[in-house]
Amino acid sequence: MSSTKSPLCAVALFAFLILASTFLMRSWHYDLQEKKFVSRHHDVDFLSVQKILFKEIQARHEEIILFYIATDGDNLLEFSGNFVSFYPSMKPDGLRKFNRKDILIGANSPDEDMVACDQLDDMQVVDFLGSGYTKTVVKVHLSDGLTVALKFINDKGTDMRKCLEEFKDPVGCHELVSFKLKKEIILLQRLQHQNIVKLRGHCRDRTPAGGITAILEQGTPLEMIQLLQSPWEERFRVCLGLVRLLHYLSQSPLGSVALLDFQPRQFVMVDGELKLTDLDDATAREPLCRTDADCLLQYPLRNFTSRCSERGVCEGMNEKRNLYNAHRFFFIYLLPHHAPPTVRPLVDQIMNSTAELRDNINSTLGAFEEVLNIFKSGLHLENLPPTLIREYSIMRGVSSAGNVDYHCWPSYRQQACVLSVHSVKEAAAICHSHPQCTSFSVTDQRTWTGRLLATFRSGFSHLVPDVHSVVYVRKTKASQGGAPQ
Question: Using CB atoms within 10 A as the burial measure, which of 11, 31, 108, 428 is most buried?
Fold first, then answer.
């Protein structure tokens, strides 16, 4: 009998010690946080401040729950166990609950583009892409060869630092700051468009704070200076993608969505396409109002107004905000400069319309699509003389070597003259207009609009076999100066 009692007593004693140590640890955490806080705020009750922190978290919860559609495995909105356990008097009553899991996206996802959390075990961080007030982004290689971007909370960022200064609670502050990333993940689930970066997965780790990681389609930060130096066709592509995105946001599944922090840094480039990557400051609520005077959009150079509807909201303000920000941050710099003559009148109309917000996003998108159709149509070639191409000797199945290149602007290559053309006839006209051009070549390589890429040069030494290339040599130049040098 005594031999049976001994193990039971040992187990009971061990359990008692575990419970006692847990109680002491929680008491120590509470006392430590309280002492730190009181040393700085002698006149404020520590528990009252923790209630303020809890209310802040609850407010963030209410903000993003409107976007949320529960799916199997998701529990992004649930408070971390550690935060609630340290403050047992503050139960999140009335908050929506979801099934608790460590992995928020299953490894057996039917979508082959999705990434499971266990795929991050053997990842290799290859580049630091950036960090802001709230989040850090890194580029990683996965074991299967896929490259993705990981976005997680920046523990050294401004948001975390300010929260710790005010509340002195690492667990609670991580909970509060994490809501921006949680909101972004939920919005990426709900808003799917070719100009929004694709969410490939999201995970919660097993650390005490329950860190959240978003797994995103890999893109490169948008470099406006580099973009300014690119051909008009590529700059137009960025603006067109942006307008298509804003059209989608104006009538998204969540309603009209405004990007409150509308800056080039919120976007990345993926295979030449502009994509929105930062959505934590997006809102799907039109501003509330009582009169039209409440519906005022203020900018440094001018103001705009919207109508206050019978429902007490500023109708169309989200759409106007997005469109004018697109004008002042993108269109002004990218759209009008060196626009082709055939589309310049339409481009000028777009610039004037968006500067004054005379048209809505539907009309603006229609104007952009018309510019695209005219640019792709080749209408500007109708006035070119049909005999122009006869001035060139044509050599098929070869490419030039020992080239003497010259620079032109805007070229697809910095140290050469490479331009997009609608046809060989247009390339011949361009070469004819360049005094230094003696020949050009075209391959089967095309731009995103389907236009050919032509390389213009002032000379070459010899030809080599190339089944994908055709070389055109100006007869007049050859007769005046012999074979191209």
Answer: 428
340 CB neighbour count, 10 Å cutoff: 14
What would the two tokens of residue 318 be?
A: 């989200």
pLDDT, residue 219, reads: 93
* Residue the block writes with tokens 């009335």: 94
- Residue 346, classed as helix, strand or coil, is helix
If phi over 0 gives left and psi between -120 and 50 gives alpha, with beta otherwise, what is residue 434?
A: beta
Q: Which one-letter DSSP state was computed for residue 309? A: P
- Alpha carbon of residue 372 to chain centroid: 23
Q: Tell me: the pLDDT tens digits for 282-323?
A: 999 999 999 999 999 999 888 999 999 999 999 999 999 999
- Decide: 195 and 110 in contact? Cβ < 8 Å: no
User: Which of the residues are catalytic?
Assistant: 261
Residue 210 CA to residue 83 CA, distance in Å, equals 10
Alpha-carbon gap, residue 336 to 152, rounded angstroms: 38
CA distances from 285 to 55, 305, 406 (A): 21, 17, 54
407 exposure class (CB count in 10 Å sphere: 0-12, 13-18, 19+) = exposed
User: Which two three-digit tokens encode residue 64?
Assistant: 């993003």
Residue numbers of the chain with a pLDDT score lower than 50: 1-43, 70-75, 79-110, 208, 478-485
- What is the rounded CA–CA span in Å between residue 139 and residue 146? 11
Question: Left if phi > 0, otherwise alpha if psi is -120 to 50, otherwise beta: which for 112?
Answer: alpha
Cα atoms in the Cβ-side hemisphere of radius 13 Å centred on 321: 25
Residue 42: other Cβ atoms inside 10 A: 7
Instruction: Give the residue among 170, 145, 146 at the shortest CA–CA distance from 156.
Output: 170
Q: Is 148 helix (H, G, I), strand (E, B) or coil?
A: strand
Q: In residues, how long is the chain?
A: 485
Q: Would you give the DSSP letter of residue 337?
A: T
188's tokens: 């990426």
Q: What would the 3-class secondary structure string for 201-268 be?
A: EEEECCCCCCCEEEEEECCEECCHHHHHCCCHHHHHHHHHHHHHHHHHHHCECCECCEECCCCHHHEE
Q: What are phi and psi of 235, to 5 degrees?
A: -65, -40
List Cβ neighbours of 215 (8 Å cut-off, separation of 6 or more). 105, 115, 120, 148, 149, 150, 199, 200, 201, 202, 203
Distances 60 to 21, 223, 390, 475 between C-alpha atoms, Å: 33, 32, 70, 72
- Interval 164-181: pLDDT, tens: 988 888 888 888 888 889
Report whether 354 contacts 319 (CB < 8 A).
no
